[in-house]
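Quick question, first post here. What does this chain look like in 3D?
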Amino acid sequence: EISLGLVGSEMCIRDRYMCTLKNVETMEERSAAGLSSTSGVLFLSVPGYSNPGRSGFKTGDVIVAFAGKPVTDYEQLKSIIKENKTAKELVFEVMHNQQKVELKLEL
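> Answer (accepted):
Ran it through. Tokens below.
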């Protein structure tokens, strides 16, 4: 289940894991995450009890790639998860504290 809502003045997405995400859209978001381009999916909130939280994802992390290919926005991320729904986990490249790391999302 996915829902849309406003966080402040920005349209954000709450996914089935109860995480709040949005596309990276501004130079400020790009700079804060240490990104080289204005793309990726930013976690605005990650509950510790959620699958992403238990997998190591934190508020402020940005998903930037899957299987070596850039993840530019939430629609692409949603497609990746849907296409791989039978997998037990997916490995993403994530910008965490301005460092690129790999995190495994348990499905």
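The chain has a mean pLDDT of 86.
The radius of gyration is 13 Å.
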